[in-house]
UniProtKB/TrEMBL annotation:
Presence of the UniProt keyword DNA-binding in the record: yes
UniProt entry keywords in alphabetical sequence: DNA-binding, Transcription, Transcription regulation
Alphabetized Pfam families for the sequence: AraC_binding_2, HTH_18
Boundaries of every HTH araC/xylS-type domain copy: 239-340
Domain of life of the source: Bacteria
InterPro entries in the cross-refs: AraC-bd_2, AraC_XylS_family_regulators, HTH_AraC, HTH_AraC-typ_CS
The name this protein goes by in its record: AraC family transcriptional regulator
């Protein structure tokens, strides 16, 4: 499909919301470098593409959406260099065919069918040295969602960033286990699996399974805690407060409540929370409430549920501040989360801006 035909295809579909995905079959093609850059930017983040080789340029891409998960398959017919300024999300990537050199911050890897990497936020990314048959699979996972999943596994809030190791071997051990989980979502050419097609709820569970499996498979700075039987051994006073917050974050509303639960002074409790989590107990409480609000919006019916009702239910009395805090953490306004909802697994593309 040439650039002219790609533009015609865009005109033939209905855009659901400005800047938001629209359905357009299952494959994109263009021979225009700027349009390819726009495709990648709309799916992931701002990209800059440099053609390394002279000659005809062609780009194709297939994109799949699941709840809080986006998977893209990109292919170039010649070697290019992709530069991505520091984004706000993680990307798991490997090459089902061929190989691509990937650099993020001070880390690097050559991804292939058996070698994968998890690129972390806050550092620039670069993709280069694409072999002739290269196809890059890149799974976008928002930082806040991954931290929420890890928090659920650990039974406490994760405050600091998750820093992954250099590469993951998909041919053995936990890496092979993760590769099997990926195949529950889609096959090696980007087609959604029959299991994922059956129902949006099934795709939702598979998406969460993929995120959790990644956390259990790829080593990171919380891995020791994941596999350490002593991980729950917080100081007893702090553990009591954490248990109460995680069980029902609405049953406490003030710092004084925390001090009573912990049976220690508020000053000692705040010092303990900062030492263990990097934040005071009230900030910990707000993060848990925000995560619960996010979960309700993701699974809510936009014809029945309202953002204001969710905000009030989880203790956010000022709707404007709730919206700003929510967008800062999750990268989108709460109204967009509610509209998008639980759509399951689908082919999408985004109109270039």
């Amino acid at each position: 499909m040439t650039s002219r035909h790609a533009s015609a295809a865009y005109a033939s579909v209905t855009q659901t919301d400005k800047g938001q995905p629209v359905t357009l079959g299952n494959l994109l093609r263009t021979d225009d470098l700027d349009e390819a850059c726009s495709f990648l930017t709309s799916v992931y983040a701002p990209h800059h593409i440099t053609a390394v080789e002279r000659g005809r340029f062609e780009f194709s891409m297939r994109v799949l959406n699941a709840e809080r998960l986006r998977i893209g398959y990109s292919n170039f017919n010649s070697d290019v260099r992709l530069h991505v300024p520091p984004p706000s999300f993680y990307v798991f990537c490997y090459a089902p065919s061929g190989s691509v050199d990937v650099t993020w911050g001070r880390q690097s890897a050559t991804v292939s069918r058996t070698t994968a990497a998890v690129l972390t936020p806050s550092a620039p990314w670069q993709f280069e040295h694409w072999t002739d048959d290269s196809t890059l699979m890149a799974m976008r996972i928002d930082r806040a969602d991954l931290e929420d999943d890890l928090s659920a596994i650990l039974g406490r809030r994760v405050v600091g960033p998750i820093e992954f190791g250099d590469r993951l071997d998909l041919s053995k051990g936990r890496g092979a286990d993760f590769a099997r989980v990926l195949r529950l979502l889609q096959d090696d050419v980007g087609e959604p699996s029959e299991l994922a097609r059956q129902h949006p709820v099934m795709a939702s569970h598979l998406g969460q399974l993929a995120r959790s499996a990644l956390l259990m498979s790829q080593p990171h700075n919380y891995s020791d805690e994941l596999y350490d039987d002593r991980r729950s051994c917080l100081p007893s006073a702090i553990q009591r407060v954490v248990d109460v917050i995680e069980d029902d974050p609405m049953q406490v509303s003030s710092a004084a409540d925390f001090a009573k639960i912990a049976c220690i002074s508020l000053r000692a409790l705040e010092k303990g929370f900062v030492r263990e989590f990097g934040i005071p107990p009230m900030a910990y409480l707000r993060q848990v409430r925000l995560s619960r609000a996010r979960n309700e919006l993701v699974h809510g019916d936009p014809d029945v549920l309202t953002v204001s009702a969710v905000a009030l239910r989880w203790g956010f009395g000022h709707l404007g501040r709730f919206g700003a805090t929510y967008q800062e953490r999750y990268g989108e306004p709460p109204s967009r989360t509610l509209r998008r909802g639980n759509r399951g697994l689908e082919f999408v593309v985004s109109r270039p801006s």
